[in-house]
Amino acid sequence: MKESKQQIQLVTADPSALGLFGLAIVTLAASSQKLGWTDGTALLLPWAVFLGGAAQLFAAVQDAKHNNTFGSTAFGAFGLFWLGVGLTWLIQAGALGEALHSAADPHQLGLAFAGYLIFSLFMTLGASETHKVLFIIFVLIDILFIGLTLTTFGIAPEFSHRLAGIAELGIALVSFYGSAAAVLNPHFGYVFLPIGKPFGWFKPKQVK
């Protein structure tokens, strides 16, 4: 019985491929609005809900089955983030009623962004001991939340908004690469797309 459970665990697919793809799509679409390439958030909503939200939450559940606390927490937190962003856009558009829209205080959103910045910073430390592609993604996420927080509090809004857009585009591009590596490396059976070894800054080295 133990052997069969172990075999099932070994053949379970890596959920980071789908999770990173979901992150790539939603940040690519959202960055286009921040950088002025597209207008509005109406057609960003489906991608925020299904790719940013559902895809990453699915990856979080699957990572939990792998006993991967880091991956499950990262995908779960950012999946819920994008669902929250989608609901925020609906409130800002007045889709949930004028009373709710008029009562909105943007500083509350700024505090939520600041909280996610704190979360992202300590997750960046964890990513440094995973692989370099993931570390780069988290560094860019840190920059994104710095930009979002400053923008929402009205601090250098033009600069910080553009900074957030550039960082978000970078997240999309590197996440596409990470997703491709997670699919193609095991599919081909060798390192087709290198992701870089952990930095080894925090984990103690094994004594041989």
TrEMBL record:
Kindly report the protein's main subcellular placement as a broad class.
membrane
* Pfam families (UniProt xref): Gpr1_Fun34_YaaH (PF01184)
Give the InterPro entries listed for this entry: Gpr1/Fun34/SatP-like (IPR000791), SatP (IPR047623)
Subcellular location field: Membrane
Membrane-spanning segments:
42-61, 73-95, 107-126, 133-157, 169-193
- Topology in the lipid bilayer: Multi-pass membrane protein
Instruction: Write the record's keywords in alphabetical order, separated by commas.
Output: Membrane, Transmembrane, Transmembrane helix
Would the keyword Amino-acid biosynthesis turn up in this protein's UniProt record?
no
Similarity comment: Belongs to the acetate uptake transporter (AceTr) (TC 2.A.96) family.
Could you tell me what this protein is called? Answer: Acetate uptake transporter
The record lists the organism as Paenibacillus gansuensis
Phylogenetic placement of the source organism: Bacteria, Bacillati, Bacillota, Bacilli, Bacillales
